[in-house]
Specification:
13 strands, single chain, binds nicotinamide-adenine-dinucleotide, about 40% helix, binds thymidine-5'-diphosphate, alpha/beta, seven-stranded parallel beta sheet, Rossmann fold
Length: about 350
Amino acid sequence: MEKTIIVTGGAGFIGSNFVYYMLDKYPDYKIICVDCLTYAGNLSTLKEALKNPNFRFEKLNICDHDGIKTLFEETRPDIVINFAAESHVDRSIEGPEIFVDTNIKGTQTLMEVCRELNVPRYHQVSTDEVYGDLPLDRPDLFFTETTPIHASSPYSASKASADLLVLAYCRTYKFPATISRCSNNYGPFHFPEKLIPLMIINALADKPLPVYGDGLNVRDWLYVEDHCKAIDLIIHNGKIGEVYNVGGHNEMANIDIVKLILKKLDKPESLITFVEDRKGHDRRYAIDPTKIHEELGWLPDTKFADGIEKTIDWYLSHKEWWQEIISGEYQNYYAKMYGGK
Ligand code: NAD
Ligand code: TYD
């Protein structure tokens, strides 16, 4: 059956992968991307989607109530999926205000418009970072959907605040929403400020690879397409008012990822440089995905060994995509964040 889906933040990493996944899987659906194109949004990422008659792009800020309402009135979406966010922890430490504006106020604005127009379904793309972190010496512990919210950074606190608002809207207004909390994603179109693409790109240029602290912090990596599949299942079969954790039991220490990338690129480990630790650096994230597996049948398809290979190959064959990004404003960011370290 034909549906119209609004994807906010669709010019970013996960949102764009989701746009391509949905256009491919549902040839009857109309996909409308709403994105204000911050430093992290890139229209060239959507170049192929823009050729598809079922896809439309609208340059709009999710905090712009009137602009969003006009678009929703015109297009009457069946589902709104909110990927739009300020997403980088280090930037949230340098300047938290925009995180409050976009991640909290933007979410609330979208939900208000949905309520005003009776949009039948809303999905909030959240993160495992809302649960805070786990100790390294308790590998038996995992985040479940009932783990208390305990955010550490301005980024995760803003995402946690948005989640609380979504759940409050569900209870107070019977707002038809679901939430997914996913672990760290990797794959094509990942912005080069994040660990995996940054290390690939620096290694290719024989530049130092800046590892924070002791490099033993653990993240639970999931190939981005598996996240897209999870969201697809939730928006079609998930229960309103529910939270679903998404993760593939793939915990890895940062230093091991960095060494693996160097090995795959045939570069020396002498490029590794330990730098000052991130403030408030979360030690370990680890998701228990039992609920989404048992209720919706979700399981990840891509093993890390294959996913990292595909990702490295993608960065090697799409140099023009990331070279354009790192030649601009990103240079100033890099100098500011890593210059003194
Ligand atoms: P990203 O930074 O790559 O992309 C964010 C996109 O949102 C960009 O295209 C940007 O232009 C757009 N945007 C930002 N502010 C906006 C605004 N006010 N109005 C409209 N558009 C705006 O982020 P990502 O890594 O793709 O993450 C997408 C979502 O998934 C975020 O909500 C993030 O919290 C969540 N998430 C990310 C990960 C991860 O590993 N990257 C893991 C779990 C959850
Ligand atoms: P990141 O990709 O920023 O994701 P998140 O902080 O949301 O998990 O970082 C992943 C891990 O890599 C995190 O423990 C911080 C670490 N890291 C580095 O060691 N060096 C870097 O230059 C970056 C960007 C991250």
